[in-house]
Each structure stands twice: as structure tokens, then as C-alpha cells.
């Protein structure tokens, strides 16, 4: 009780007026805070569960910390591939590298949804602690937690909805998802720093038992009492959370990993579907290129400085053709292995006498937007397996797959595998 | 007064533990600063307001609706499953938790399909996204879940009764 009135005093001090109404105000505040305190205590009692304990929070926090770290690193990798800084190293092998990292990114993000819900549930009474503000530091800590929690909730929500290609929000997904990732990883590090003594004390079952047995009992409300007694045990709860996480992973990861395709119940994407058994992110109709792509006078322009060549589809098909099995892997996490056949990009570069270490700018017949143009660093343009593909799975490209010609390079995000190509410029 | 949230006091001398905490805190603050700079430099003001609104709404929906609902459900369950063995209560709760999580994930999927494919599956601009019958999938999932949970509960009930019968024999 002592501590609480201390806290109340500090809280009231913040609100103390200086004018004539101060005394009246103080009296009112007194009644109000007492009332609020009683209310909060009773609400807290209602939310109490014997299941909640610091040990439970530490175990869940460990899992969630790991999934967040994996999401952050794979997301950062994807972002670096799309917006490369000068020092960027572009790995082209294994060819399925990006399919794997982005599949892991999306799947781990989905796995973190039940873990996040459980972790937040385990500390819910902290939200209702009274008084709400005890000091400036306490206020800052609560604000940082509020930011951490809300950023995490929004991040997993918009990430999930993005895989549905559904954007019911008034901001750019790409920017906000990326910068919220930094908010979360920063908040996570700060949170771990603040809680490290608690985390250490409850890290293992032995240390947890020792910490719980320690005589110095803090003012832990009933809601935070350790989990003992009959009913739903901590182990049972953790098993159920593990099962939930396992189920959402198993029923969605089939969009990214072929060996789980059979269990794919709740993913927005299915493998081996769409024209030529390959899914599509953007159709020709959406891109508005149907007319230009089907025009009989289509030619590919390849240029390097003042040297310029144009090639018809028949001329391209007459060049040496190479065939590779490469995955198309989208930032939305789905991927699809396929057999692509076409002309090596480096052969096209040689035709116009381009230096081997040159980068390329690829232009689509689709105008504007992120799909209109892509830049290809030399790491890809010089790769054997980087093709201007004319065929997919043994037949000419479907219009929706980029007919008459598209880029396919090993280990690149799908958004950079430009479709409906009409210009390749050496820069 | 010591803050209960801050845990036991840290030793005054600066050991490894102190440095780990300090380094983590510094890294965290640096990353947060970078994030704020990133938001201000890359996201227009109007969109920032939208982000702030979403962040606030997420807190309200989660803390004000979802968690109270789980508490209500938990209280209701305690009454409904009163008299069952602890293991059986655990199975009921576990199965419902799995079902709730899957439903939480499938609900936006179904809603997205309604919004993006207003005249039925395949009526959207791109028919290789959201192509499953997710309502049916969710129904089948719940059916399997209920059958499995009921089966396990019955098996547990029979097993524990038999073993308790055996135990009572002299």
C-alpha cells in the first residue's frame, strides 16, 4: 500500500494545479484516483490467470525473439537485393537462395503471429498496472513498449495481407514494412537490455525455481503469481502454442516449399497453378501490355553506347538457346521452380561489344512503376544461367509470363525478373 | 521506490553483464533512431498519419478486444469443462487454441477473397492469387480438429478410468 500511495503522490504531482482551483482539483483527483485504482484492481483480478508467469514470458519471448530476428535478417537481405548499396555482394548460387530466404521470411512471419499473441497475453496484466506512470523513466519505458507492441502487431498484419495482394491501408507497404522492421529490431534490443536481469533469472527451469523461491517478493499482483495448481499447466499451454504455430506453418508454407505443397490449405498461393503451371504476380492485362506484347512488329533493342542492334523474335530464336531450371521467387514468399529456355544475356551483350563488367538496364513494355524497368548488376548479367527467356516449361512464354521475352536470373527477387522486355541497355 | 519492471538491481561494478546490457540498449536506441529517420525521410506526412492511426488501432483492437475475448472464453471454458479431468480440460483448451489461431489467420484470407474477387473465385484481376476455397478448408480443419480432440479425450478418459480401477484393486 505504501508503494502505491507513493506512486499516487507522484502521479498527482504531475496534475497539481497552481491556481485557486488547486485544492478543489486535488480533492477531485484524490477521489478519481482511488476509484480508478479500485477499478483497475478489480479488472486486473478478472484478467488474472495462474498460467501467467515470468518463466512463461521468458520462454515465449525466446521463441518470438528468434522468429523476429530471422524475419529481420531475411527481410534485410531482400531489401538489399532490391535496393543494393555500392558494396553489395550478389550471391547467384544456390539458384534457390532467394526462394529459400523469402519463403523463410514469410513463413516465419506467419509463425510469429501465434507466438506474438501468446507473448502479449502472458504480460497483459502489466498493461493494467496502477499507477500507470511512476516516473519519467517508467513513462519512457511504457511508451517504448507500446511502440514495440503496436509496431509488431501492424508489421505481421500488413505482411500477411501483402501476401494476399490486399492493401487496405493509406500508406506504401514497402516503405512502412521496411522501416517498421527497424523499429521492431531496435525496440527488441532495447527491451532485452531492460529485461535482461529478469530474462537471466527465469532462463532455465532451475534458475526460475531459484528466483521464485527467493525471499524478496516484489509487489507482484495476483495476476502475475506463478503458475501452479490444477488445470491448464504451463507445459500444456506451451504445447498448445507450439501446436498452433506448427499448424499455421504446415498449412501455409506449401506456397514456398514444394515438399509441403500437399498441406497447403491456408496460403494465398498454390504451386503448379496458373498458365504453364507457374503462378503470376501481375497479368498482362494488369500491366496494360497486351497490345504491345502481341504486336507482330515487336523487336528487342540491345544497345551499348552508340552501338545498337534490333532483333526480331525469329532472330532471337535462331541464336544459341540454353535451358535451365530456375525458381521464380516473389517477395510475397511464394516460389515456383520451372524450366526456362532462351538466349544468354551475356551473349546479347557480346553482340554489341559491351564490356564484361557492365551492368544493364532492362526496360519492359509496361510503363512506369517498379515493374517498368530493372537494373541488372554484372554479377547476374555475366552468369551462365541468366537468360532472356523465350520459353517456359517447353512452350513459348504465356502472355502473362512476359511474352515475347522476359528476364530470368538465378537468385533474384521476382519483381526484378522483368517481363515483356523490349530494351536491354548496357550502362 | 524501485520499479518492479526493472528487475533486481544491477551490481555497481561494470561487469560483462552490464556491458552486454549497455551495448544492447545502445544498439536498440541507434536502430530506433535510424527507423525514425527512415520514416521521416521516406514516408510522406499524410502516410505517416495513416501509419500512426494503424499503430494506435492495433493497440486498441488487440488490448481492448482480442485479449478480453480470450479471458471471457477462458472463463466460459472453466465452467463448461467443470468436472473433466485436468488432462481433458487441457485437451479442450489446446484444441480450441489451435482452432482460434487458424481461424485468426484464415479470416483475413477469406475477407481478402471477398474484397478482391467480388463475383466469386477467379473473378479478380489475377486468378493465381487467393485461389483456394478457404471457407471450406476452414470448415474441414475444424471438423478434423473436433474429431481428433474428441477421440483423444475419450481415449484419455477410458485409459485413466481403467488405470484408476486397476489401482484401487488390492
What labels would you give this structure?
heterodimer, A: 427 residues, alpha+beta, Fumarate Reductase Cytochrome B subunit, Sulfite Oxidase, Chain A, domain 2, five-stranded mixed β-sheet, five-stranded antiparallel β-sheet, elongated, B: 170 residues, mainly alpha, 2 domains, 4 helices, 76% helix, flat
What's the gist of this structure?
The complex is a heterodimer of chains A (427) and B (170). Chain A is of the alpha+beta class and 427 residues long. Helix content of chain A is 50%, strand content 13%.
Q: What report would you give on this structure?
A:
The complex is a heterodimer of chains A (427) and B (170). Chain A has 427 residues and is of the alpha+beta class. Chain A folds into three domains: 2-47, no CATH class; 54-215 and 231-263, Fumarate Reductase Cytochrome B subunit; 284-426, Sulfite Oxidase, Chain A, domain 2 (Alpha-Beta Complex). Helix content of chain A is 50%, strand content 13%. Chain A contains 15 helices and ten strands. In chain A, strands 2-1-10-5-6 form a five-stranded mixed sheet. In chain A, strands 3, 4, 7, 8 and 9 form a five-stranded antiparallel sheet that branches. In chain A, α3 runs antiparallel to α7, α4 (97-122) packs antiparallel against α9 (234-250) and α6 (136-163) packs across α7 (173-201). The longest helix of chain A is centred in the first third of the chain and has 29 residues, at 54-82. Chain A is elongated and about 90 Å long. With 170 residues, chain B is mainly alpha-helical. Chain B folds into two domains: 16-80, no CATH class; 83-170. Chain B is 76% helix and 0% strand. Chain B has four helices and no strands. In chain B, α3 runs antiparallel to α4 (134-168). The longest helix of chain B is centred in the middle third of the chain and has 36 residues, at 45-80. Chain B starts with 15 loop residues before the first helix and ends with a helix. The mean pLDDT of chain B is 87. At the A-B interface, α1, α4, α5, α6 and α7 of A face α1, α2, α3 and α4 of B.
